[in-house]
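hey so u asked for the seq, here:
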Amino acid sequence: MNLTIDNLDGSGPRDYTAALDAERPPRVHRRLNRPAELRAWLVANDAQFVVPARGARIILARDSGEKLFTGYAAAPPQYDYLGWGERGPVYRYALRALGDESLLDSKALPRRAPLVNRAAGDALKQLANDLLPGAFNTSAVENLTLLPFYSADTRRSWSEHASALALRSRAVYRAHDGALWFHAVGATTHALDEASPSFSPEGLQLDLAHRLLNDVTITGYIEPRAYVKDYFLGDGYSLGFNLSEVPFSRGGSVVLDEEYKDALLSPLRWTVSAAPGAVAVSGGKLRVDGAGAVSFAEQVELGGAVLLQHGDFEFTAASDALLGGLYTGALALAGCFAGFRVSPSGAQSVIAGVANGAPAGTTLTTVAGHRYVLTTRLYAQEIYRRGPAYHSSLHPAGSGRGGATVRAGVRVILEVHDLDPNNPPSLVAPSTVLFDAVLPAAPEFCRYALVNAAALHCSIAFTRLLRPAEAQVRSCMVGGSWRSRLVGALSEGAECRISSAPELYFYSPYAPASNEKIVVTYRSSGRASARVKDPDSIAAEARGADDGVRGAVLALAAPPALTSADCEQAALAVLDDSTQPACAGEYGVWSDFLPGGSDVFPGDALQVNVPSRAAAFSAIVREVEIEAADLAGDRAQYKIRFANDAAEPLALDFHQAATSALPDTAAIPAQVGAQYLAAVTEAEVIDVTSTSVMIDAGADPPAGGGFEVRRSDAGWGPDNDRNLLGRFTGRLLFLSRLSRVQNYFLRQYDAAAPPRYSRYSALLHVDYPL
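ran it, structure tokens below
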């Protein structure tokens, strides 16, 4: 074997093999989805010996050229004094090096927008490219699982993110010899068969403990729950209205805040396609003069509330462009889901809304010297438009459980705030709404292009992408029609805000008129959880007084369980493996007799077939320790530690349970995804009197079923009448009103035995004077 070290001093690699301490051979420690580590001990063997420097490039290779380790010295070597020699003091140098990823780990990740709708492998390459563009060969990086969202926390190292991406995909990453690998675990299989002449029975240790689970409860994040509509009536002077629930919020509201302070647009945020000089940054503004496109580096998820402030535009000439466009495909009008169309009109321009690839709504003609803040507000019924995927030994990378898209309509509001520098009141004047409508079956993700121009002449002062309060406000004057009330800051043309009280508060210039109807639409929140049990395993384990249940409550840390439906999929992934025997072990062998005759890496599969120990199972290699005990003979001793997913989950990470609020009922695997009906998301109050309320359920009842209405969100089912207000078999529901403030919780049910209900309620909250 050969040890070469390049101290990066311009002298190139040096051969340190002869300096290796014969009493302490080099050791390589490989761990699954963690940097490899080398420890070596050197003794100066001649006057030309150079003490390895911190950051030196280190390679341990076999005589054949096969590299057992490549990486960089993690620190200056430690000195051990051995005595006095012919040339003076003699030292042993203890050297510690980490794998090639340490080059990436030595740098702090730049702040970037979360990666949205990206494959795990693509995200891995992106983060590596953010740190050292082109430094690694990434041809062996596979895409694998599609992730709806991944936030690259700058406090974590590149290898920590690589490990997190691997966990979400049941994959293995490796940085070795200047290249990155990312592929499904088990892509390489080694056979450990006692019938093989190279099998070493004394080197095998097995742990075949039967750690079994067949009744699993998973808890996850705080999820969006009831579909809430709060109804109020203006009295001409009240500005504040108390909401019935705290609106669900995802937090981390600022996705992009671009003030154009740098000399160039950052490639971490923007992709520019334009002729030279057509797009430039100067004087704190983005200046566009000609044709070109400026696109956001990440996609935008059309879920919950999204606020896109495209910027403060000052037009210098008549223009032809699409601004602030959300695209489902190519940057063209036909593929523009929502945005603004700017068309020339003499020396000025006309601004119009765009919806589903066509001009929509009203228009506004620009005025010389004015500035225009273009804003898109999106309100989707569903907060998340794609669920995470969960993997197991039965559902490997690329075929995980879950990960489905969620259909939803999206209310699109396109507004323009006209700012006249010579008219200060225009700074707080209401914005002009060009378009306001619900677009059904909206795309889950869109590409965002701030500018897509044929001939644009303007400057842009800022661009922001925010996730505001997940609530929309609409009102209707007596005899009028419903309109959206803009939520946000008064200085940005908004009319009201949502506080954490929780309260809807109108700014004084926009106080609701007497008898003006107001409705606030949002989602309530609660802890996501689900319980799934395997009846076959339970029956097989039953013995006498033992009912066979082997249960656990697990709080899932990663992949994130954003909803109760996600918790169900995660529970299924746990059951895939936990109802099987847990198998683990360790195998020590010389390199000459490695299973399959080739080097072994963490993430490889090991097919164990040792009938004499009743062992026949497949496992994944978790760690490999290599001791180069015979340098002259080019031989090493290997210690391979392995386990299957039942013993050590590969694609699920748990932490201490965060709540004791657990589901009352358990599903069986065959029921998951089919045991609930859709929520009655379109239910609404259509008439209120001092003694009654009329509700339109928004859909016809299921065949043989109907709608159940309760005073509180509990007790659902045909056998509980404690808080029941009624069961109805028609779309229109007539209910008594007993107080000024009253809640009506609705779920639909069908004719199954027992009946199936909606997972989440619709809450209609009425706060009207009697």
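The helical segments are 102-105, 120-131, 158-169, 535-541, 564-578. The longest helix spans residues 564-578.
lmk if thats what u needed
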